[in-house]
Amino acid sequence: MSEREAKFEAMLQAVLAEYDNTTAKMEKLRADGKVKSATFRQLMGTKLTLQSILARYKVYGLLD
Known about the structure:
By secondary structure, the protein is mainly α. The chain is about 80% helix and about 0% strand.
């Protein structure tokens, strides 16, 4: 694997980890009934951004 490929793989793993962390935080806030809070809305924006990045990985065959 080239250095460039390794960097792409590292980025993918970082995005996946951040996505999982973000959704976990959202679930905690949802369980606490705080779906209208600024924090929840901020996390929703982050989640949508990460979903967009992951969708691009899928389009190019870099994610199953």
